[in-house]
């Protein structure tokens, strides 16, 4: 895997995860929210959904594969 592919995959992971987390917090969508700290009467509770990170990882994988295939098609046509 080349450096550009890693950068594309990392940027897509950060962008998709960030957008999904932002939408979850803005519109109170619990499946997209990540709450690190929540006070209860017994103390505190840490948790939240990992769905934005799973979706971001999937998109990251797909973008990396797409970029590699596109790069090999472009270099193969020259």
How is the topology of this model organized?
Blueprint: H1 3-27, E1 34-40, E2 43-48, H2 51-77
Antiparallel strand pairs: 1-2
Describe this structure in words.
The chain is of the alpha+beta class and 78 residues long. The chain has one domain. The protein is built from two helices and two strands; from the N terminus they run H-E-E-H. The protein has helices spanning 3-27, 51-77; strands at 34-40, 43-48. Strands 1-2 form a two-stranded antiparallel ribbon. Strand 1 (34-40) and strand 2 form a beta hairpin. The longest helix has 27 residues, at 51-77. The model has no long low-confidence stretch (mean pLDDT 88).
List keywords for this structure.
two-stranded antiparallel ribbon, 78 residues, alpha+beta, 17% strand, single chain
Tell me briefly what this model is.
This protein is of the alpha+beta class.
Q: Low-confidence runs (pLDDT<50, min 5 residues)?
A: none
Radius of gyration: 18 Å
In round numbers, the mean pLDDT is 88
Number of helices: 2
Estimate the strand proportion: 15-25%
Number of strands: 2
How many domains in all?
1
Question: Alpha-carbon distance between the termini?
Answer: 21 Å
Q: In order across it, which strands form the biggest sheet?
A: 1-2
Please tell me what the overall shape is.
Answer: elongated
The biggest beta sheet is recorded as: 2 strands, antiparallel
Helix share, percent? 55-70%
The secondary-structure element order is HEEH
Structural class: alpha+beta
């Amino acid at each position: 895997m080349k450096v550009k592919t890693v950068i594309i995959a990392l940027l897509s992971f950060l962008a998709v995860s960030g957008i999904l987390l932002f939408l979850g917090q803005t519109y109170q969508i619990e499946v997209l929210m990540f709450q690190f700290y929540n006070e209860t009467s017994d103390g505190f509770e840490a948790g939240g959904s990992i769905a934005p990170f799973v979706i971001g990882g999937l998109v990251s994988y797909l973008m990396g594969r797409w970029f590699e295939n596109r790069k090999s098609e472009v270099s193969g046509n020259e």
